[in-house]
Amino acid sequence: MSVASPAQLTAEVGYMITSELSVLYVGVDIAKDTVVVAAHRPAQLTNPVSLSNDAAGYVRLQALVSDWQTAAGCASTHLVMEPTGGYEARLAYYAHAQGWRVSLVNPSQVRDWIRGLARRAKTDCLDAALLARFGAERHPAPWQPPAAEWTALQQLLARREDYLQMVQAERNRAAIFALLPHGTDRVRDSLHATTQHLAEALVAIESAIDDLFHQHPPMQQQAERLDTIPGVGPKTIPPLLALCARLYAQSNGQGTAKQLTALAGLDPQVYQSGTSVQRSGRISKKGDPVLRRTLYMASLGGTRGRNPLSDFYRHLVARGKPKKLALIACARKILVWAWAVFTSQQPFDPAKAASRGA
């Protein structure tokens, strides 16, 4: 179903392609039940089309892309979309199977880019068109589907966090209920039974995570290599590995340690203008808060004893840095080392880290 004319959308987006392209860039705005697609091709912006977010819609999209490619004389297709909590997964895998390039771009980067265009209006059609333009201008890195075991690890870790939160919530309810002067036995028994059930389910998830590592030797070997990093242990390894695998897939293996720290929300944000405006630096906190807490606790443990992380921490404190800031810097350092170990497939080398000033 067409939802706007090409002329209207071209004027609205404020952009016209005039040069010949070898790649057809298709922007995709994802919702639970629908997707809106638009493409940039030489000399015009295609008419955005709304499709169902299911197999029938994907078949229709394949036909549209084929027509657009033929009309534009493009050799290949590059789909650009934003992650939307899982709604994009089926289409991403389908598109990759068709031989199209797929990019799952950071929504905050796209928003900042759109803000630079002085855009104010927001519709699904505009979002699709702007994503296509973003792809044509920025050429985002292609996404590669992660191996099944890495997807399973991410799902298990997400479910483990669900159970942890539910267990804590039930324990809090039980603690409050215990203070009531006339607590009903039926409610007390229900709280106890639910807490027990959730605790058992949590144990089962933990066991499934352990089994996953044992069933996949390459994953187990990656875990053992990460275990050589100061501060990294059994609680830190699974989420750290999942984060590294996520960046590796999103960037087609071309990611950097800086991007990894940004995914975790540990990237510094500096605010300074001239000589009179200078705020203290902070981390962005735009990533996973659970992972940040885990890394912070890992830095607490890793700075004890004698190792490169401890030396790095003491060096920062000796320079007058607050201890909390130094620990956050250590958490970021763990991420940098983890990415180096993950990509090189070599254990952590303390001598090399010491030679580089940790």
Topology:
Elements: H1 6-13, E1 23-30, E2 34-41, E3 44-45, E4 49-52, H2 55-72, E5 76-81, H3 89-97, E6 101-104, H4 107-116, H5 124-138, H6 148-178, H7 185-215, H8 217-226, H9 237-250, H10 257-263, E7 268-273, E8 277-283, H11 289-302, H12 308-318, H13 323-344, H14 350-355
Parallel strand pairs: 1-5, 5-6
Antiparallel strand pairs: 1-2, 2-3, 2-4, 7-8
Helix pairs in contact: 6-7, 6-9, 7-8, 9-13, 10-13, 11-13, 12-13
Describe this structure as you would to a colleague:
With 358 residues, the chain is of the alpha/beta class. The protein folds into three domains: 6-138, ATPase, nucleotide binding domain (Nucleotidyltransferase, domain 5, 2-Layer Sandwich); 148-215; 243-270 and 283-355, no CATH class. 58% of the residues lie in helices and 13% in strands. The protein contains 14 helices and eight strands. It has helices spanning 6-13, 55-72, 89-97, 107-116, 124-138, 148-178, 185-215, 217-226, 237-250, 257-263, 289-302, 308-318, 323-344, 350-355; strands at residues 23-30, 34-41, 44-45, 49-52, 76-81, 101-104, 268-273, 277-283. The strands form two sheets. Strands 1, 2, 3, 4, 5 and 6 form a six-stranded mixed sheet that branches. A two-stranded antiparallel ribbon has the order 7-8. Strand 1 and strand 2 form a beta hairpin. Helix 9 (237-250) packs across helix 13 (323-344), helix 10 (257-263) crosses helix 13 and helix 12 (308-318) packs antiparallel against helix 13. It is globular.
